[in-house]
Amino acid sequence: MNPIHPSENILILGTAQDGGYPQTGCRAECCFEAWNDPRMKRLVSSIAILSGSDCWIIDMTPDFRYQLRMIETTLNRQPNISSIFISHAHVGHYMGLKELGLEIMNTDHIPVYVMPKMKSFLEENEPFNQLIKLNNITLRQISENVTIQLNDNLSISPILVPHRNELSETIGFTIKSPDKSILYISDIDTWDSWDVDINDLIRANDILLLDGTFYSDEELPGRNIQDVPHPFIKESIHKFSLLEEVDRQKVYFTHLNHTNPVLKITGLERSELIDQGYHIAEDGMLFSI
Predict the structure, then answer these.
(1) What is the mean pLDDT of residues 191-208?
(2) pTM, whole model, 2 decimals?
(3) CA distances (Å), 7 to each of 29, 52, 122, in order?
(4) Once rounded to an integer, what is the mean pLDDT over residues 241-267?
């Protein structure tokens, strides 16, 4: 059996929906306090897998500059970006790739793992195809449930999920070490529209970072919330209520929209969620794997 390295961790780089928190142009109560208190800021949803100096990043967000700095601070050194995995073609999940280009980092052949439609999207659209032409990145096509070995101890597998797939597929990721299994699904339409039982996955994994974009259907007055489908936390809690408490405690909600009331530390919704055993993911959280 391969040795387990205590320095192998999952670092949460961001926990906000694609627009971040506070969100551009929002002058409503949900963001008012956050504009005036930088400590409340949340970066766009992303995680990093860390092992020694190596890191593997899931999703390249518009906040990548700050997230790279978070990795450097956590490791106390400059990381080796071994590869990048992109979940889908919504702006918060791939726009950070531009930071790798000639004008900024000018990286050299960083492997970027993508599903077939995501690969075509990057190949066919500027400025991302320039990253390919200038060898800043190298695209590597992946397939559902096909495991990629990261090192002797760590592996990752993509898992298809139903989501607004206008431009690409959407995938979550299972990350495994000899000791633990972590599931990361930042975006999905609903748990019921998936042909997989999420409760079974919760029981089978040790840590689950799951889509918590909206708390309820009351968050976007004046807009049709069905245009941006995500499972409401209220519905998720109801669905997960069949679980034992030890399994509910594995769940961390992430990808939080700026309107989500669980962002309020003293809010009733957050308190009730925590009382039932669930967690709200926070930027900078570190999980040993």
Answers:
(1) 97
(2) 0.95
(3) 41, 6, 33
(4) 96
**3-state SS, residue 133:** helix
**pLDDT per position as a tens digit, 142-151:** 999 999 999 9
In eight-state DSSP terms, residue 242 is T
Query: What DSSP assignment string belongs to 9-40?
Result: EEEEEE-B-TTTBTTTT--SHHHHHHHH-GGG
Domain ranges of the chain: 9-288
- Cis amide leading into 38 (omega within 30): no
pLDDT tens by residue, 201-211: 999 999 999 99
User: Residue 183 and residue 177: Cα distance in Å, rounded?
Assistant: 12
The first and second tokens of residue 100, run together, are 């790798």
* Under 8 Å between Cβ of 172 and 197: no
Flag whether pLDDT at 158 surpasses 60. yes
> At the fourth CATH level, which superfamily is domain 9-288?
Ribonuclease Z/Hydroxyacylglutathione hydrolase-like (3.60.15.10)
The model's pLDDT over 56-74, given as tens digits with 9 standing for 90+, comes to 999 999 999 999 999 999 9
Give the whole-angstrom CA distance, residue 162 versus residue 182: 20
CB contact at 8 A, 279 and 272: no
